[in-house]
Design brief:
Rossmann fold; single chain
């Protein structure tokens, strides 16, 4: 990473965390991925069952292996043998102790913007699990809410569509086609502007480029 970008992250990150705190999120800034992984683990009680959304950031931080190594009870949908079992795991995740996810974008004033296809990730963010831990690289931070929507819709969504390999216009062209394809991953668009239960949503900002 360019040093100038890293310097910006380290200066802006704590300020964004402060803005999140003003909206009743419990927010932290970690300068490195290693520090972020340690912080996330410290936020999860040993007795919690942990589930997660489809997040590259979790893989980049090695959180699955770290949770396994300490004997955490997890709901890993990728271990399902049938579509029915996978769906049952998605439903079970809505009642877990800790749900881990990233955010498609975060505005500098502390609002989360997320786009989802199935909807389990944003459903958990809004209601269900006792707590939600959002881990996001500073590359997800945008100047304002409008730019956060633009990032989520025109950068994150087409990139994720490429990752999932669905039959959508953006998979073919790389550009949002405002589609109504059965494989559309932009079915739900959610702005979380305030944490209604103080501290239920914990946000760990990371001073590195993580995720899409």
């Amino acid at each position: 990473m360019l040093q100038a970008k890293k310097n910006w992250y380290d200066k802006a990150g704590p300020r964004v965390a402060e803005n999140l705190g003003r909206r009743q999120f419990e927010a932290y800034y970690c300068a490195t991925a290693a520090e972020a992984a340690e912080k996330v683990l410290s936020l999860i009680p040993a007795e919690d069952t942990v589930a997660w959304g489809g997040t590259m950031t979790m893989d980049e931080l090695g959180l699955k292996a770290l949770l396994q190594s300490r004997g955490q009870t997890v709901i890993d949908r990728d271990t399902a043998h049938t579509p029915e079992e996978r769906m049952a795991m998605l439903h079970a995740g809505l009642g877990c102790g800790t749900f881990i996810m990233s955010s498609n974008a975060i505005s500098e004033d502390g609002q989360l913007v997320n786009i989802d296809g199935t909807g389990n990730r944003v459903a958990a963010l809004c209601f269900g699990p006792r707590q939600v831990v959002v881990v996001a690289g500073m590359n997800k931070v945008c100047v304002d809410l409008e730019q956060a929507f633009q990032r989520a819709r025109h950068i994150a969504a087409p990139a994720n569509a490429q990752r999932f390999g669905g039959k959508t216009p953006c998979t073919a062209t790389g550009l949002c086609g405002d589609c109504k394809s059965p494989d559309c991953i932009c079915a739900q668009m959610v702005v979380t502007r305030f944490c209604k239960v103080p501290g239920r949503i914990k946000v760990v900002l990371v001073g590195e480029d993580l995720g899409l």
